[in-house]
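Q: Here's a chain of 84 amino acids. Please give me its 3D structure as tokens.
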Amino acid sequence: MQLSEALELLHVDAGLVDNEVEKLIAGLAPYIEKATGLSEEEQAIMPLCRIAEKFLLLKWYYGGAESDRVLNSVLSQICTTARL
């Protein structure tokens, strides 16, 4: 995910929290790899991984546990799809 895309998703202006958001972006692929077993290269070709990235970024930036069930479902679906 690019910084500009993340800032747009989070509805924040460029320059205000760029460093914080860049750190969150850097953690997306490793987190998804640990949760699904998919390498960063494999994640790049799976559309569900893009959805998971967005859920994760929103969760990590704004907090809150209400999205956990949806996120876990998306990660589970990624695992299932990857096995096909």
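Q: Can you summarize the key feature?
A: The chain has a mean pLDDT of 86.
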